[in-house]
Amino acid sequence: MPIAKWKELFNDVTPRNFAEKCCLYDRHQQVMYSCGEFPNMMLMGPRGCIAFTPALILGQLKWGVTPVPDQQLGGLYLWYKDEGPSTQEVMAVRKALRDIHLRGQQELGEHQTFYSEEYKSWRAERVKGISAPSFSIPPAKGGLTPTEAILGAKVRMLEYRLQEARDRGEMKDVALEKSDKVASSLKEEIKSLKRDYAEMSARTNQLTMIRQNRAMEDEILSLRRRLDARGEAWRTVSEAERVAVQDLGQARATIRDYQRALDQAHQREAGYKQALEESQAREAHLNDQLKGLIESHDNMQENQAIWEDNWKCNFDECEQEKEQWKGKCHAIIEGFGDFADKWLVTFEEAQQEFHMYPDTEIRPAMGALFRDCTRIARRLRRWRTECNGGF
């Protein structure tokens, strides 16, 4: 609503019409006044019906309030019975709700902003009395003769016109009282409005600058926090990279040592194979000699026994060296497996930390290195399992 309208509204307010002037612009064009043959409105609920009288609240809807006829004063009806309402009563309410009667300016007259003296006296007398509501089905249509209906309509129209004339007279009195005050207070109100407008403009500029300053301070604080967080993340990544480089160097040195030991083991194995082949060749040569020297068997039996003892000792030594080699290979394989397990645990922990802190940035090369190291560790673990199965 414009300021001029508010000013006009406030100038019209007096102690006598203050309650009616509030929300004057909220006016309803039509009112649900009754339904069917009932003199008021009926509502249906899950356990019964409630009746209310719209004629008593016309003042809240900004219509002129007049004394309410006795036939509309039934109070509120609550049907909560153990056996429930009768079928005839329910059907009467349902039929009435299909026929709702609306009243507007033609029936209620012009919008009013105060109660009439006639209504005030009627309300005071009604408050003193006590009424006990009772429900009855309204009579069917045709209870009144056409002459009675016409006379009743004329009486109601005359009552509305009388109330309208009274309201207009009272409104003229209020307008006369208002016109005496408007001329004297107009200049003072204009000065006050100008002064208030200047103060509001200055205060608005100050508040705008304060809000902008606070917004800039909040933005600067947020940027500082982001920079601190990025610096901390960069330090964490640098430290992790340094530790990873050290671990990688140690891992490469360990792998070279294991490879050297494995080459030596292969060389010893080749020597054992060559010695075994030589022993087999020597055995064949001795068998040939044994066949050719059967006549000297008695003389060579002692030498043969000595040779068999030496051969057994040689095989025992080979077997011992084989077991030693097998233990060393098993230790090498287990060392590779333990190293792979520790390596996988380390990189899985690093991967979990990266998932826990998604804002932490990692270089693509570093990520590729992590993935390559993880694949190498898994291959070492599979190799350990295959070698242990072979043994």
Automatic annotation (TrEMBL):
Coiled-coil region: 176-203, 248-296
Entries under Pfam families matching the protein: DUF7745
Xref: PANTHER family: AMINOTRANSFERASE-LIKE PLANT MOBILE DOMAIN-CONTAINING PROTEIN, PROTEIN, PUTATIVE-RELATED
Keyword tRNA processing set for record: no
Every DUF7745 domain range: 6-128
Xref: InterPro entries: DUF7745
Alphabetic keyword roster: Coiled coil
Protein name, UniProt field: DUF7745 domain-containing protein
